[in-house]
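Morning. Coffee machine broken again, so started the prediction first thing and wrote up yesterday's gels while waiting. Chain of 285 residues, entered below exactly as on the submission form.
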Amino acid sequence: MQMPRSLLRLAIVSSLMLPIGCRDQGKFSAQRAAEDVASLVELTNKDLGEVERGMPEGAKRLAPLWAQGKNPHDDLGAVRAALTKVRREVPDLNVAKSTFFAVTDERGIAIRNNLEQDAMAEKNLFAIFPDLAKAKEATTSTTGAFPETAAQNPPDRDWLFAAPIRADDRKLLGVYLTGWTYRRFAYHLQETLRHDLGERLRKDNEAGKLPIFYVAMFDRTGVYGAPKTPTVNEKALHDADLVGKTASGAHTGVLTITERDFGYAAARTPKLGADIGVVVLRSEL
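Came back before lunch.
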């Protein structure tokens, strides 16, 4: 007996959906995560470009803090005001994803940052982040952890970028620096991805829901997700050896976490640092 056409069409559609709805669900999510992570690497490079372009210009504008023999340590209010003004007036810095801007003297002693509560003041940042001393010669970036960051639970890390502040005669006056924590930057990437996925659904007139997804930064010290990322997810990604698996390029895989199959994709972001990368963990609803 020949199958009715309506049932035949249903059978064909169902067979096409099987790889997505059943055993290949994790692989499908990994493929979509690969698209997501590629866009986030591109976004990361754009964000870093803003910092790379804006910081040298900002450093030039901070040199007057030392004009006529003034010592910025003596007027912390003026330093904070200058930091706020410079960020507002330098277009790239005004849109930068930085969570702070700060000034040190030529020894690396923090003078003031732009935040209301300044936990950096009078700390030797060259001692906490030894590679920052390279900023006495040229712009540089580094990673590590402020004492306050290292004491957090869950732990976090900081990414910093610094530029030298020089007098007209090229004498080093101090260092201008900025940065963000891994988890704060992961949140920025995750929210951008959430917006983009939502826009894609609306553009395609799809009635489906957003997938379950998480974004995290990683390096050799661990995996650092956006706030509210389940600890079990970070552990599973850490155990997947993302640094090793991305040594020669982007990597995708499937993980089962709390009885749910997730696809993931990870890629390095070498502009942030040789072993730093971003990972997307995703599961379709």
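The mean pLDDT is 91. Going to sketch it on the whiteboard this afternoon.
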